[in-house]
Fold Acetoin utilization deacetylase AcuC.
Amino acid sequence: MLNNKRFFVMLKIAYSPIYTHPLPEGHRFPMEKYDLLPEQLLYEGTVDTENFFEPNVLDDKWIVNTHDSKYFEKLRNLELSRSEIRKTGFPLSQQLINREIHIMHGSVQASLFALKFGVAMNIAGGTHHAFTDRGEGFCLLNDIAISANYLLDNKLAERILVVDLDVHQGNGTAQIFENQSNVFTFSMHGASNYPMHKEQSDLDIGLPDKIGDKAYLQILIKNLEPLIDNEQPDFIIYQCGVDVLDSDKLGRLGMSILGCKERDRIVLESAKRHQIPIMCCMGGGYSPKISDIIEAHANTYRLAQEIYF
C-alpha cells in the first residue's frame, strides 16, 4: 500500500518509450535499462505513474544555444562522416536523433521541476561527452550543458554547479564551459579510463583503478562541501552514472552497490541541506548483469523519495 503522503510533493521523472530506440543486435550499450528501471520503481512502490512525465522535442534554439549550428544541422540531416559516426559509438539514424532531442527536453523539463520540488530526474541523459561541435562516447548532444544554459539564459539560475560522478571524465561539458564563469564543472573519474585525453574541468579528481568505497567516499566528502561553500551555486546538475561499480565492464573502479548508493546520498543530502535544487541525469552503467545496473540506478530514486519527500 503506497503512502499517499509521500506524493503530496512529487518526485518528477522524465521517461519516454523513445529512450529505448533499438540498436543492432550485439551492440554493447544497454538500452533495455531505460524500460526496466521505471518498471522496477513502479513494482516496488518507490514511485507512482503520476511521478513520470514524457518529454517532447526540445526547440532547436536551445540546442544551438549550446552546440555549433553547423554541427547540429549535419546531425539532424544525417550528414556526419564515417569518422564522426564511429566516435559517437552509435549507428546513425533518424530515430537516434529524435531520441537524443527528446532526452535534451527531458533534462530541461526536469530542471524546471527541480526548481519547483527541489529534485527531479531524467532516466536518460548525462551525455557529458558531447562537445560544442561533435559527439563522442555514446553522446551526440550534451543535456547537462543545454539544461544549464537554458536556466541561465532564462534567469532561473545565476550560478550552476555540475557534479559529474560518472566513471568517465565529463570532457564535453568541460570544453563547453571552459570560458564560462557562472558554471563550475566538477568531475571525479577514473584517471586512466576513457577519455585518454582529458579536458580541463574547473575541478578534476582522477581516481586510481580499483579504488574502493571508503577511499572514494572520503574524497567526495572532502571536496563537495567546501566546493558548495566556496562557489555558492543556486542549482546543481548531478551526473550519477553507475559505471563506478566494481562489476562494470568499462569502469575499472572498485565500488559496491552500497557504496554507490552512499555516494548518491552524500550528494542529495548536501543539496537538500543547502536548499539547492538538483537535477539528476543517469549517465553510464555497463555491468554484465542488468540487475546490478537497475539496482544501482534505482537507489538514486529511492534516496530522492527518502530525503526529499
Observations:
- Residues 1-7 have pLDDT under 50 and may be disordered.
- Residues 94-117 form the longest helix (24 residues).
- The radius of gyration is 18 Å.
